[in-house]
């Protein structure tokens, strides 16, 4: 297929996918895997792979804003990344420093009122990276239209362990009663938290695991997960739209599961109420609020079928 035909086909496919989407998540989190493998396959340096991945991240920000998604979290540097060779770590720190400053000064960031926030054990990062984190957060602190969370020196298990230790210390000191321990108490001890719970996690590069990423905000919210094979620099808008379609299909399936349970419950109320519930389940009536009936069953995502 010629380059022109391939481009036209891609545009048509994007339009088709966009027409199929009528419900989008509010918060998407991305594990940007495959930069180094992409560079190796292309015969390039690891640094070039990371820089091309950064370009994909910039595109993703635009795609999210086009769809009306309100929050994006990207896994830029994990606690495990500290174990990489020193030269690779320094190259990553250089890239993070450059891109954060570029984002903080970009006209499109200020025109679209993007609030930039860092999540993680920021004090473990070099001073120069900490300084640019402070600069980016301060420049965009007052914006509310869109939130961009950048996970740096982040590890979900470390986050939960540190929070637990701080809570136990408060209990030992007598400043916190075990009876007062609740969700708000735990969240107050986590890293600078996302504004919203995570609705969808995307992982590129072929691995089907969430790698210790936002366990409190994603797993606790039973977020949908979309795994795909392209390396992060190759991640495309059609692939992104397919991930949104996965989220949408899952939400609709969950809704039908709740309605099925509601129908089972109202059967005991008489034939009239049961018939009303059946009409709702068939889509011929409005959907009632049936929250609290119980957790819905998980459904398969459509990553393989797309």
Automatic annotation (TrEMBL):
The keyword Magnesium applies. It catalyses: geranylgeranyl diphosphate + 7 isopentenyl diphosphate = tri-trans,hepta-cis-undecaprenyl diphosphate + 7 diphosphate. It comes from the Archaea. Substrate binds at residues 34-37, 46, 50, 78-80, 82, 84, 203, 209-211. Keywords: Magnesium, Metal-binding, Transferase. GO terms for molecular function: ditrans,polycis-polyprenyl diphosphate synthase [(2E,6E)-farnesyl diphosphate specific] activity; magnesium ion binding. Homodimer. Its cofactor is Mg(2+). Catalyzes the sequential condensation of isopentenyl diphosphate (IPP) with geranylgeranyl diphosphate (GGPP) to yield (2Z,6Z,10Z,14Z,18Z,22Z,26Z,30E,34E,38E)-undecaprenyl diphosphate (tritrans,heptacis-UPP). It is probably the precursor of glycosyl carrier lipids. InterPro entries: UPP_synth-like, UPP_synth-like_CS, UPP_synth-like_sf. The active site is at residues 33, 81. It holds the Pfam family Prenyltransf. Belongs to the UPP synthase family. It comes from Natranaeroarchaeum sulfidigenes. Residues 280-306 are annotated as: Disordered. It is an enzyme of class 2 (transferase). This is Tritrans,polycis-undecaprenyl-diphosphate synthase (geranylgeranyl-diphosphate specific). Binds 2 magnesium ions per subunit. Its EC number is 2.5.1.89.
């Amino acid at each position: 297929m010629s380059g022109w035909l391939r481009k036209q086909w891609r545009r048509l496919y994007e339009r088709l996918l966009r027409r199929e989407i009528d419900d989008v998540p509010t918060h998407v989190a991305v594990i940007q895997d495959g930069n180094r493998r992409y560079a190796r396959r292309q015969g390039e340096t690891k640094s070039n792979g990371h820089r091309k991945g950064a370009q994909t991240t910039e595109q993703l920000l635009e795609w999210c804003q086009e769809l009306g998604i309100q929050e994006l979290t990207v896994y830029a540097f994990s606690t495990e990344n500290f174990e990489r060779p020193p030269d690779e770590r320094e190259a990553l720190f250089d890239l993070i420093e450059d891109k954060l400053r570029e984002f903080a000064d970009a006209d499109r960031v200020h025109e679209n009122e993007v609030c930039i926030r860092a999540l993680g054990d920021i004090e473990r990062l070099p001073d120069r990276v900490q300084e640019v984190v402070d600069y980016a957060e301060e420049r965009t602190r007052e914006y509310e239209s869109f939130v961009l969370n950048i996970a740096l020196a982040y590890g979900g298990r470390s986050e939960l362990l540190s929070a637990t230790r701080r809570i136990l210390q408060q209990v030992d000191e007598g400043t916190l009663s075990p009876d007062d321990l609740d969700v708000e108490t735990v969240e107050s001890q986590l890293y600078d938290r996302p504004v919203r719970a995570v609705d969808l996690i995307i992982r590129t590069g072929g691995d089907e695991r969430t790698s210790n990423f936002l366990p409190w905000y994603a797993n606790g919210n039973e977020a949908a997960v979309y795994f795909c094979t392209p390396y992060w620099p190759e991640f495309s808008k059609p692939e992104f739209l397919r991930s949104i379609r996965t989220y949408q299909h899952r939400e609709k399936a969950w809704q039908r599961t709740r309605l099925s349970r509601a129908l089972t419950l109202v059967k005991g109320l008489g034939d009239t109420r049961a018939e009303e519930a059946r009409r709702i389940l068939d889509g011929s009536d409005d959907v009632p609020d049936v929250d609290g009936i119980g957790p819905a069953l998980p459904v398969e995502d459509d990553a393989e079928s797309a």
